[in-house]
Amino acid sequence: MKIFIIDNEVARQRNLRAILQSLGYKSGEVESSDDPALGISELKKRQYGALFVYLEMPKMNALDLARTVRSSSRLKQLPIVVYSADVSKDNVMSAVEAGANGFLGYPFSVSDVESALRHATKNAAANQK
What we know:
The protein is of the alpha/beta class. It has one domain (3-128): Response regulator (Rossmann fold). It has five helices and five strands, in the order E-H-E-H-E-H-E-H-E-H. Strands 2-1-3-4-5 form a five-stranded parallel sheet, with helices on both faces. The longest helix has 19 residues, at 110-128. The protein is globular and about 30 Å long.
């Protein structure tokens, strides 16, 4: 399963990529973009099994990005995990309402990422039924 990361900060991308690789994902199975619009374009070109997106980005936040993904017939079932250092109830609820399948507090551990990915893919699969 290929995973895509959209985050305006390269250091967070590298951190998440390293965690995913420690979970067994090969470097070619994890791709990323620091630009949400380019990321959405890439998502439409290839098949991905999950999307991780940082909540607070300057060009387009994760909520708008999730809504855009959900409006695409090709991408509407893609599991989305939003992550942020601000894990307030409002942020979590807003992410879910925008179409996210999971929310992850940053910084995170390997087990946090593994659990969030498992939950998001299971949640997305349940929504397909």
